[in-house]
């Protein structure tokens, strides 16, 4: 098997960082196109939104189990296969505008994205250690946030200029382009393959999920990301139907949301040596204040700028909390990096998709007021999660 060459390690590292945001890119690039897709395909808004949910659930559930496969069979060949299948699925969506076909291809994309992303996160644990590993894992959520920044911005212009299919053509060509460099410069990074023992693997999963600080960490980052999911799914219809702006405005608003998330992650990186709980406790309290103010103000001023300003503030703090807890979860079980990476990434998607899609339909989000109340509920749940997370970490360190 072709091993990762040290002289190409810097190129492989760059390629890994390029692929880590693929999941967010695959969901966010066609967010400005959701209303147009519903009209063009002659389906309901809920049916188009379901394509997002299917991708997130398939990606999240598959990530829960893919880690053990990658730890047993390696990263390299599986990654190449996944890139090929993902690219083909993207072209099929663009060429066959049928909602049933789109659903199937989105599920396939979700599974292949999981194989790619979990393998790339585990790559860093395979190839780096100590402060270098800590440095790179702290960059993950910052790099991941590039998708919510760039994707809707590009998608808005693609929608206006070429139509919604162009988003999927772009995804297909992009992954085919990266595939060439992956084949040329990367190799197998896993140095010690683990035997694929189903009972042993289930025990590893069970042990991780029963670890309170790890499982509560998953809940916190899942809830934090669900704020972005809810805004991404709901905002196109509020901005384009209620406020009657173009998809380009939707793209710009999502650009601001993604920038806020990234700035939160960058701020977390700058404060990496500060006390973990001082940072996330302060952030979640500020989130409670802003979410509460957004809810109160929205009853009297239900406008676009109320939506945008408070979204930016809440998402900035969400990115800050996410980055801190995400890095903690990835490094919690270094001996089973693939499993930990899969559970962390899968937990984010499963929790955020269930919370996001569930709350969207429960509250029937159609205006600023309803999205403000949902934000407040999620932030309250995050506050409770951080309280339990802190107690479990402190208990473990005292033992």
TrEMBL record:
The record's GO molecular-function terms, alphabetically, read: sodium:proton antiporter activity
According to the lineage, what is the superkingdom? Bacteria
In which compartments does the protein localize?
A: Membrane
> What membrane topology term does the record carry?
Multi-pass membrane protein
This protein's GO CC annotations: plasma membrane
PROSITE patterns noted in UniProt: MFS (PS50850)
**Coiled-coil regions listed in the entry:** none
What InterPro entries does the annotation carry? MFS (IPR011701), MFS_dom (IPR020846), MFS_trans_sf (IPR036259)
UniProt keyword annotations, A-Z = Membrane, Transmembrane, Transmembrane helix, Transport
Pfam families membership:
MFS_1 (PF07690)
Keyword Isomerase recorded? no
Biological process (GO) annotations held by this record are: xenobiotic detoxification by transmembrane export across the plasma membrane
Transmembrane annotation, as ranges = 12-31, 51-70, 77-95, 101-118, 139-162, 168-187, 208-231, 243-264, 276-297, 303-326, 338-360, 372-389
Start and end of every Major facilitator superfamily (MFS) profile domain? Answer: 12-393
Annotated PANTHER family = MAJOR FACILITATOR SUPERFAMILY, POLYAMINE TRANSPORTER 2-RELATED
Q: What is this protein called?
A: Predicted arabinose efflux permease, MFS family
Q: State the species of origin.
A: Chryseobacterium arachidis
Give the lineage.
Bacteria, Pseudomonadati, Bacteroidota, Flavobacteriia, Flavobacteriales
